[in-house]
Amino acid sequence: MSNMNKHEQQPAPAGATQAPADYFTGVAWVKPLVAAGHPTDCVVSEVTFEPGARNNWHSHPHGQVLVVTAGTGYYQQQGQPMQLLRQGEAVSIAPGVVHWHGATPEGRFTHTAINPSASQGMVEWLQAVTEEEYQSYQA
Amino acid sequence: MSNMNKHEQQPAPAGATQAPADYFTGVAWVKPLVAAGHPTDCVVSEVTFEPGARNNWHSHPHGQVLVVTAGTGYYQQQGQPMQLLRQGEAVSIAPGVVHWHGATPEGRFTHTAINPSASQGMVEWLQAVTEEEYQSYQA
Question: Which residue of chain A has the CA closest to B41?
Fold first, then answer.
């Protein structure tokens, strides 16, 4: 993807490591903000997607909240159209809802990811988002 | 406070309303991101403190996570020194821990506030942070 290549030289966000290729298409970065084991039982991370990058379809047994901190990205819930997520917006994802999120082809996208009741399970990964699925956005 | 007056003309952040004067000193703004009643049971807000503003001493029955999204602010846990919170940093506050947070005198401070298990209680407000307490920061 030419847009991904064009941006590949950007440095990793401070404190972040690359997200596992098994569950992501393209390059994404995860910076831990609150690790497992804290008394709130929330695991909180900052996730940055390079242009074109996204995670696999997945669900969270206790749901998840995303808060966009930079850029504009995509969010799609299974069976529904892709939607844009803009800086300052949040999405509350109910337990068990299959979905994915990631950058547009045009720019980096960063969100805070909040996982409640994390000690009881965080995520169930499914298949990758195909190019056809990824390119189905209609404004 | 001259610094507060100097900045009072800044517009409110989009989508925010002023935080209740009963529990805040100075001007702060609260923008709801995830309201009560969502299936994650997390209530998430963006809170912006004008220079010099802070909330009262308080605690959360189920704890709270703060993620700094803009500026540098103060955080103090009862019985401990004030500490600086910088953009990109987070603090995980255990249930029942008495604390306060707010802006420095020098600039606006914005954090995301994450309240887990919100349906079971969010906050217990205590007394205001005095000027003497607020001015006790030592770098």
Answer: A116
Q: Is residue B21 part of a domain?
A: no
Assign residue B80 the CATH number of its domain: 2.60.120.10
Cα dihedral B110, B114, B115, B119 in deg (nearest 10): 110
| Concatenated DSSP letters of A38-72 | -TT--EEEEEEE-TT-EEPSEE-TT-EEEEEEESE
Identify the domain containing residue A69 by its residue range: 27-134
User: Which residues in chain B are closer than 8 Å to A90, comparing Cβ atoms?
Assistant: 33-34, 44
Contact B94 A65 (CB under 8 A): no
pLDDT tens-place values along chain B, 139 residues long: 444 445 556 799 999 999 999 999 999 999 999 999 999 999 999 999 999 999 999 999 999 999 999 999 999 999 999 999 999 999 999 999 999 999 999 999 999 999 999 999 999 999 999 999 999 999 8
- Is B128 within a domain? yes
Residues forming beta bridges with residue A29, ordered by sequence position = A18, A48
Which of A29, A40, A67 is the best mutation test for B, with the most CBs of B within 10 A? A40
Looking at the domain assignment, is residue A116 inside a domain? Answer: yes
Enumerate chain A positions whose Cβ falls within 8 A of a Cβ in B.
Answer: 14-15, 31, 33-34, 38-42, 44, 46, 62-65, 67, 69, 88-90, 92-95, 112, 114, 116-117
Q: What is d(CA A31, CA A112) in angstroms, rounded to the nearest whole number?
A: 9
| Predicted-complex ipTM score | 0.90
Q: Do B94 and A39 touch (CB under 8 A)?
A: yes
Q: Is B10 a domain residue? A: no
